[in-house]
Structure to design on (596 residues):
């Protein structure tokens, strides 16, 4: 099985190295950076810097106005693990089965002893690595460009959360692709908007079923964007109260369960391979 | 038959697509050898192949290949090579990358998968083109590439679904030679085609499938023996055939007569061919009857299959 998965990884990476896919990778890596960079420029243009002199004649430079760090952190979080990672995985892993069926190549994979499961896991890993790589790149550039007080904190939080997002969303979209192979991308977009977008912000226990809620919990723990906010029962329901290690374990368990379910579906399902010649 | 010597065993196998029958109630025991799976388009050949390769599960009955259910026990797929009818649609990938990838999925190491892929592509005559993208290939080259992926892991049973589709005469000749060599090496083969003479060039054992049902199996003589008792159509050419038709119409063993508008061709369906032959010799002495040609549909295997299909459809009934 491991040999078979390594062959899928190699083959899929070979297919990745074409100009179109490299361009998508670059676009997804640079798009959040450009957005944050533009925000930084705007922030600098509206900030007012003044020199204040105290009663002893000491001068300090104070900057007022501009976009606070909180705005930069929230924008970065929305752009990288939420939008860019999701878009990358929608392109890559959602059509994992559907694309093979459409290309009439599924029968060749299904005919191999470990073909079905190896392809599922192999494509999952390729999508995860492809997405995580541009997201980490994005996180580093954003840390440099954002101008926040603690860029290392932001880069670390964004990078780790993006890797976890890639891991979880890849498993989720693979399962959607295995079940709804004909309209996988549409179903995945609807699911993402409904559950990961809308339901994850409902201050009720149901939002804990979403990946977004867990990622938000980590962001809340690892960055200072909630400093000064009053904690109450609603913020607890929206941002969570679990410790980071527990949240990470939940995401790993969630991904493993979805991936195993996707493999089971792909292994046992009778996909329409070919019509009578 | 010793169960270890059976490569394929289907017991009351049916496969339904909703309310449509893909294949129905197939019973079959095949020892190692080469078989032609023959039937018209849409007869159930591909469904049959999908069942024995574990791509589909049977709705009813049991399928066993080399003693194992291919849908549940997928290790048996190592012993099967499949060349499906569908085209390869990986235009940017080279034949070598693709065959190496699929060979690797059988569990070979990267080095061994590459070596097997190269050897297999050389065997099918793709040595010069194996490093070009598949999108630049002719149909014949794509067929050869499919054949290479089906044989690279050295299977015991090779299954081909309409492999001659779209091939030019040279390609057909080369593929026929390849498959003959495969059979001569003692390996098993199932060759699905709707063109009988292509199959006859490679094997004399047939599985005739139509409407999802297995109508007949065996070699040519066994198939013909199944037709004993069914009316045989005989075509006569010459002059005075209207008078001949009138004389034949009185015979009890004549099941039907049809004469062409110009009167130079007479089709007679007879249930007793010996009686027909005796009577036709008598009638040939008539001064107004001149018989130039006599053709019997029993003469060719294709005619025998055609007859079987007509029996299956209910166009003909046994005496």
């Amino acid at each position: 099985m491991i040999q078979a998965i390594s062959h899928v990884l190699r083959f899929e990476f070979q297919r990745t190295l074409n100009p179109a896919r490299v361009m998508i990778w670059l676009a997804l890596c640079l798009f959040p950076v450009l957005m944050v960079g533009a925000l930084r420029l705007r922030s600098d243009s509206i900030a007012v810097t003044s020199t204040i002199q105290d009663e002893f004649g000491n001068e300090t430079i104070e900057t007022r106005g501009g976009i606070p760090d909180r705005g930069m952190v929230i924008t970065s979080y929305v752009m990288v693990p939420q939008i860019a990672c999701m878009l990358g995985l929608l392109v890559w892993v959602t059509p994992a089965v559907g694309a093979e069926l459409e290309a009439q190549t599924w029968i060749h994979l299904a005919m191999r002893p470990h073909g079905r499961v190896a392809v599922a896991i192999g494509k999952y890993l390729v999508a995860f690595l492809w997405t995580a790589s541009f997201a980490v790149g994005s996180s580093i550039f954003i840390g440099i460009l954002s101008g926040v007080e603690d860029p290392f904190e932001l880069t670390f939080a964004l990078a780790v959360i993006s890797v976890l997002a890639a891991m979880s969303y890849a498993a989720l979209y693979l399962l959607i692709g295995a079940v709804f192979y004909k309209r996988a991308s549409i179903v995945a977009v609807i699911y993402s908007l409904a559950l990961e977008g809308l339901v994850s912000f409902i201050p009720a226990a149901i939002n804990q079923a979403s990946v977004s809620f867990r990622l938000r919990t980590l962001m809340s723990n690892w960055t200072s964007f909630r400093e000064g906010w009053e904690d109450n029962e609603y913020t607890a329901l929206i941002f969570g109260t679990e410790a980071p290690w527990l949240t990470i374990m939940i995401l790993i368990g969630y991904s493993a369960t979805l991936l195993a379910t996707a493999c089971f579906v792909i292994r046992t399902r009778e996909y329409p391979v070919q019509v009578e010649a | 038959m010793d169960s270890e010597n059976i490569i394929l065993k289907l017991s009351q196998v049916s496969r339904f697509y909703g309310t449509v029958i893909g294949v129905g109630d197939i019973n079959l025991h095949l020892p190692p050898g080469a078989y032609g799976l023959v039937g018209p388009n849409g007869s159930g050949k591909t469904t049959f192949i999908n069942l024995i390769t574990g791509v589909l599960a049977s709705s009813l009955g049991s399928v066993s290949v080399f003693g194992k259910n291919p849908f549940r026990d997928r290790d048996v797929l190592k012993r099967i090579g499949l060349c499906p009818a569908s085209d390869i649609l990986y235009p940017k990938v080279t034949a070598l990358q693709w065959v190496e990838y699929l060979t690797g999925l059988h569990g070979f190491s990267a080095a061994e998968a590459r070596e097997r892929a190269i050897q297999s592509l050389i065997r099918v005559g793709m040595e010069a083109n194996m490093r070009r993208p598949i999108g630049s290939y002719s149909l014949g080259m794509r067929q050869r590439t499919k054949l290479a992926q089906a044989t690279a892991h050295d299977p015991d049973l090779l299954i081909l679904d309409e492999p001659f589709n779209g091939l030019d005469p040279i390609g057909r000749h080369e593929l026929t030679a390849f498959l003959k060599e495969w059979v001569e090496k003692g390996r098993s083969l199932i060759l699905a085609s709707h063109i009988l003479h292509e199959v006859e060039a490679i094997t004399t054992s047939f599985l005739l499938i139509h409407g999802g049902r297995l109508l007949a199996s065996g070699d040519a003589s066994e198939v013909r023996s199944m037709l004993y008792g069914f009316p045989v159509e005989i075509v006569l050419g010459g002059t005075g055939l209207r008078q001949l038709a009138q004389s034949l119409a009185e015979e009890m063993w004549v099941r039907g007569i049809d004469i062409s508008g110009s009167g130079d061709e007479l089709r007679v369906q007879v249930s007793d061919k010996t009686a027909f032959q005796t009577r036709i010799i008598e009638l040939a002495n008539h001064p107004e009857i001149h018989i130039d040609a006599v053709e019997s549909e029993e003469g060719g295997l294709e005619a025998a299959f055609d007859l079987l299909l007509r029996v299956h459809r209910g166009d003909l009934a046994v005496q």
Observations:
- The two ends of chain B are 33 Å apart (CA to CA).
